[in-house]
C-alpha cells in the first residue's frame, strides 16, 4: 500500500472511531500544547454530571481552544460539573484549577495523585531533585543536568496547583447518570496513570498509557507519595509499565481513546508491537554492553547520538528501563564506583 493511501486509511479509520465515540456521548477535544508531543486529547462526556476528562495545559491558547471546542458542542466551561484528571503530567491537567474555579466542578483523580496535585510546586521540585541525582549517577554531565533543571523549572508554568475534591480508588466505579466508569490504576508511563473503562460500551479512556503513533515512554519518576528524601531503590518504570500493559491486554475493549492522537481499535496487536519493540531494544543494549561495560548515558549516546543530550532524561529513562529487564533476566548487573553506575554482563 502506498504511503498516501495508508495515511488516508488511518484518517478514515480515526474518523469512524471518533464518530462511534460521539454516538456514545464521548467527544474528543484536541487541545494545543507548547510541547513536542503536539495536541493533547481531552474528552467531554455528555452525561450527568457533564464530565471532562483532562484539561490541557495552563495556557491562554489552550483555554481559548477548549472554549471554542466546547462552544461547538453547545457547552461552556461554566457547564462542566465533573473534571477527571488522568495523571500527573502538565499537558493533561494544567488548566484544571482555572476550569474548576470557573465552573465549580468537582475534581476527581486517583487517591495519591490528589496529594501530588495539591502540592504541585513542592512535588515537582522534589521530582527535579530526584531527576538530578539520577542523571548524575548515570553519567550525564553536570552542565547538561543543570540546563535540564532550568528547562523543567520553566515548564512548571504550564501546570498548576489543583484541589481534588473526589479522590478515586483503584477498581471503584464512577457512576454517572447513564454510564459507569471503572477506575483502573495502570502505572508505568507515570506513577499515577489512570484508565477509565466503560465496560457496557466497551470503551476506555486511557490517556498516555497507550498511544497509537508513538510508544509511551515509561519515564523514570519518583513514586507517588515519596518524600523529599527519597533515595530509592530506583523505581522500575518499564517493568511496571509492561505489567500494566499485560493487564490492559487482557481487557475486552473495542475502542481505546488515548491522550494523544487517534483512537485505537485493536489494542492487543498494538500492545504486542510495543512488547516486541522493548525486547529488540533490550537486545541492542545488551549487544553493546557485551563489548564493554557502559553507563546508561553512554548507552543512550551510542544509540541515539545527540538526542541523548537534548532529551537526556527521556533517553536515560529508556535505557534504565531496559537495564531493569536485563537485570531481571540475570544477563546484566549494575556496578557502582565513586557514585557512577555502569552496566556490565553477568
Ligand atoms: Zn503523560
How would you describe the overall organization of this protein?
This protein has about 350 residues and is of the alpha/beta class. The protein has twelve helices and 13 strands. It has helices at about 5-25, 60-70, 90-95, 95-105, 115-120, 120-135, 140-155, 235-250, 265-290, 295-305, 305-310, 310-330; strands at about 25-30, 40-45, 50-55, 80-85, 105-110, 165-170, 175, 180-185, 195-200, 205, 255-260, 330-335, 340-345. A six-stranded mixed sheet has the order 1-2-3-4-5-6. A five-stranded mixed sheet has the order 7-8-9-10-11, with no helix packed on it. β1 and β2 form a beta hairpin. α9 packs across α12 and α10 packs across α12 (about 310-330). The termini are far apart. The model has no long low-confidence stretch (mean pLDDT about 95). Bound molecules: zinc ion (ZN).
What's the short version?
The chain has helices at about 5-25, 60-70, 90-95, 95-105, 115-120, 120-135, 140-155, 235-250, 265-290, 295-305, 305-310, 310-330; strands at about 25-30, 40-45, 50-55, 80-85, 105-110, 165-170, 175, 180-185, 195-200, 205, 255-260, 330-335, 340-345. The protein has about 350 residues and is an alpha/beta fold.
